[in-house]
């Protein structure tokens, strides 16, 4: 719903249709734009030929974060941008950096109206982009589908508001609420469609995190194996405070292909650290929580945010999942429930679908073959 404010223009009937298209377009580069969010801009012109509005320019934040979406859309529209409407999934920036402010570029191009979605918490932008547009004579309609747009850039928003990356926890559950068999290696729980969805989610995150137990037991690749998306594998983080990861493991042997980081104590084995570094593994220091004795996750996430990581997908086992849940560090929860039952000998999940419904807001529910896929959000953080 549009914010009520005398200086803003009211929402029009077509605005949600074009903003929804812009949000879908923004998904193209999610996870590939560095510390900048993946934003989309559509330039829409209502011609006088009676055929209604049409898109004359579109842009999405480029790989690495530059140029911004507005620049691409304006370049494609050219002179057709004059008098047109720009739909932008995030408030246009208002500060001078390596390029002039996008709000200024929209004014110079003769855009008559800007419809924006999510607000930008960056103090250099928050409200200033809209102010620059209004000062330039541009009509502004903010907050159109703001919640939907925010979900596509929740890592960026979380990093600015909470000083840490956004966290998605993903668990595959058996129908009886188990995630595997203790000491029994990997158990196939979900089918190929759910597995493909998991790889798509990986491609949309900056990093994927597992615990040392998962890494040692499964020796996983932790990459994106969808056709054509191999280059979108996220960085890998192994939470291994006592440095049990060996140079022979897959995550170490492939560290020069897919960036791999191990979070470990400063006191961990120096010889093993050196051997892993030879393979291309990097390290981030972690410290124990004085109350639980486990790794202090808030401090670790702050340090990871300082490296430029804005979104992390946690795919660890029960202990890692429970630690993130107990610390209230899960922003999005994905539960993929398979049709199999593991039985009483199985490892019980730290949260099931019923528990998630009580704690989180259900965003999406799908059926993939014999599997059920649930996505939940902690809606009060964005």
UniProtKB/TrEMBL annotation:
GO terms for biological process: riboflavin biosynthetic process. NADP(+) binds at residues 172, 214, 218, 317-323. Binds 1 zinc ion. This is Riboflavin biosynthesis protein RibD. The active site is at 70 (proton donor). PROSITE patterns: CYT_DCMP_DEAMINASES_1 (PS00903), CYT_DCMP_DEAMINASES_2 (PS51747). The keyword Oxidoreductase applies. Its EC number is 3.5.4.26, 1.1.1.193.
């Amino acid at each position: 719903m549009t914010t009520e404010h005398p200086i803003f223009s009211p929402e029009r009937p077509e605005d949600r249709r074009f903003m929804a298209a812009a949000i879908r377009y923004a998904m193209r580069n999610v996870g590939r734009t560095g510390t900048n969010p993946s934003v989309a801009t559509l330039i829409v012109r209502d011609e006088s030929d009676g055929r209604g509005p049409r898109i004359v320019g579109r842009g999405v934040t480029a790989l690495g974060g530059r140029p911004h979406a507005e620049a691409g859309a304006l370049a494609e529209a050219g002179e057709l941008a004059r008098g047109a409407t720009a739909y932008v999934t995030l408030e246009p920036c208002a500060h001078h950096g390596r390029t002039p402010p996008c709000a200024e570029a929209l004014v110079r191009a003769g855009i008559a109206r800007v419809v924006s979605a999510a607000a930008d918490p960056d103090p250099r932008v928050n409200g200033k982009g809209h102010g620059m547009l209004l000062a330039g004579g541009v009509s502004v309609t903010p907050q159109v589908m703001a919640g939907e747009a925010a979900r596509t850039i929740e890592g960026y928003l979380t990093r600015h508001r909470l000083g840490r990356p956004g966290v998605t926890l993903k668990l595959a559950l058996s129908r009886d609420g188990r995630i595997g068999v203790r000491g029994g290696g990997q158990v196939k729980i979900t089918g190929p469609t759910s597995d493909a969805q998991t790889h798509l989610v990986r491609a949309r995150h900056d990093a994927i995190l597992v615990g040392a137990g998962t890494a040692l037991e499964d020796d996983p690749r932790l990459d994106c194996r969808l056709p054509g998306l191999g280059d979108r594998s996220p960085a890998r983080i192994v939470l291994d405070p006592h440095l049990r990861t060996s140079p022979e493991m897959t995550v170490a042997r492939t560290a020069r292909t897919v960036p791999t980081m191990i979070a470990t104590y400063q006191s961990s084995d120096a010889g093993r650290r050196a051997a892993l570094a030879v393979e291309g593994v990097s390290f981030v220091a972690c410290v124990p929580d004085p109350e639980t004795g486990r790794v202090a996750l808030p401090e670790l996430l702050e340090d990871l945010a300082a490296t430029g990581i804005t979104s992390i997908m946690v795919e660890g086992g029960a202990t890692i999942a429970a630690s993130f849940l107990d610390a209230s560090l899960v922003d999005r929860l994905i539960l993929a429930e398979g049709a199999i039952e593991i039985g009483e000998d199985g490892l019980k999940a730290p949260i099931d679908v019923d528990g998630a419904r009580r704690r989180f807001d259900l965003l999406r529910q799908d059926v993939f073959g014999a599997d059920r896929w649930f996505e939940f959000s902690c809606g009060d953080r964005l």
